[in-house]
């Protein structure tokens, strides 16, 4: 499995570049990347900005896994900003860019895959979404096989978030350690315990990204940072916790701090639609 620490190329949807709703976010991203001599690429054929969710997952340099991107929140619910009319189709996008993929029948969102070189972590929403095609045991076996990892960790889904994405809850800070949003440290004990139990069973270490004595739900945004081997971009919300998040993440990524690879971008234009910097980026090794 290709970890985020190895990736060297950042893609965004063309919608991020063109949509005036995200003008400031896009300009800031281009600016901070330019400071490091980096230039993003743009995905054609997309219908929304959330590239992480619909683009394939890279297992090896020349191996991309294309899953069935058909989440329940894109089933035409007019009460949501997410409707079938804005659904992006990975097969169309990949054909336009000549990305060769291996297809899987698993229904999945890329935002629900938090990965290291030998481990993936997903919320148990993946089990409910695939219940008509796989038993839980079959699904875990299939995940092991297609992503070529030793460890598949299933954690509880915070159903306050309709997307059910693990990347809004925790991230790897090295191959053996997971950083969890401090919001979940203060969450319902019956919810927190199973998360920690599954990490401990997999012999993973964990720590907390604490940004406040009383963590607000929005503080989970800080865990949705954009990470490649060249840069760590931390979301900002125009609040006091912003600087704390930068300070804390700098401690967890000392090499990035030492090499001036830690940057920040105001993420408020994104968070009002339920996502942040990891959600809008597709990072791979080219």
Record the SSE blueprint:
Elements: E1 9-13, H1 14-18, H2 23-35, E2 41-43, H3 51-54, E3 57-60, E4 63-68, H4 90-97, E5 101-107, E6 114-116, E7 119-123, H5 125-129, H6 136-147, E8 151-155, E9 170-174, E10 177-181, H7 182-185, H8 189-201, E11 205-209, E12 226-227, E13 232-236, H9 241-252, H10 254-258, E14 262-266, H11 268-271, H12 277-280, E15 281-284
Parallel strand pairs: 1-2, 4-5, 7-8, 10-11, 13-14
Antiparallel strand pairs: 1-15, 3-4, 6-7, 9-10, 12-13
Can you tell me about this structure?
This protein is of the alpha/beta class and 286 residues long. 31% of the residues lie in helices and 24% in strands. It contains 12 helices and 15 strands. It has helices at 14-18, 23-35, 51-54, 90-97, 125-129, 136-147, 182-185, 189-201, 241-252, 254-258, 268-271, 277-280; strands at residues 9-13, 41-43, 57-60, 63-68, 101-107, 114-116, 119-123, 151-155, 170-174, 177-181, 205-209, 226-227, 232-236, 262-266, 281-284. The strands form 5 sheets. A 3-stranded mixed sheet has the order 2-1-15. It has a 3-stranded mixed sheet with strand order 3-4-5, sandwiched between helices. A 3-stranded mixed sheet has the order 6-7-8. A hairpin with a 2-residue loop joins strand 9 and strand 10. The longest helix has 13 residues, at 23-35. Mean pLDDT is 93; it is low at 78-82.
């Amino acid at each position: 499995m290709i970890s985020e620490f190895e990736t060297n190329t950042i893609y965004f949807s063309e919608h991020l570049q063109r949509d005036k709703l995200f003008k400031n976010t896009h300009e800031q991203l281009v600016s901070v990347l330019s400071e490091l001599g980096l230039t993003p690429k743009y995905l054609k054929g997309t219908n929304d900005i959330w590239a992480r969710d619909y683009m394939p997952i890279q297992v090896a340099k020349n191996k991309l896994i294309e899953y069935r991107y058909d989440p329940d929140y894109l089933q035409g619910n007019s009460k949501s900003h997410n409707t079938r009319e804005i659904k992006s189709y990975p097969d169309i996008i990949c054909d336009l860019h000549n990305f060769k993929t291996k297809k899987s029948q698993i229904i999945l969102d890329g935002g629900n895959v938090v990965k290291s070189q030998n481990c993936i972590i997903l919320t148990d929403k993946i089990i409910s979404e695939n219940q008509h095609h796989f038993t839980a045991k079959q699904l875990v076996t299939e995940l092991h096989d297609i992503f070529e990892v030793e460890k598949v960790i299933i954690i509880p889904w915070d159903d306050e978030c309709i997307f059910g994405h693990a990347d809004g809850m925790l991230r790897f800070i090295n191959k053996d350690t997971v950083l969890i949003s401090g919001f979940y440290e203060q969450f319902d004990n019956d919810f927190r315990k199973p998360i920690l139990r599954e990490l401990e069973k997999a012999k993973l270490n964990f720590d907390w990204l604490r940004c406040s004595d009383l963590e607000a739900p929005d503080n989970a945004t800080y865990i949705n940072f954009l990470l490649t081997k060249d840069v760590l971009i931390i979301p900002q919300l125009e609040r006091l916790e912003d600087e704390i998040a930068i300070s804390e993440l700098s401690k967890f990524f000392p090499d990035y701090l030492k090499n001036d690879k830690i940057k920040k971008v105001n993420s408020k234009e994104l968070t009002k639609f339920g996502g942040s910097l990891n959600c809008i980026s597709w990072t791979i090794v080219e």
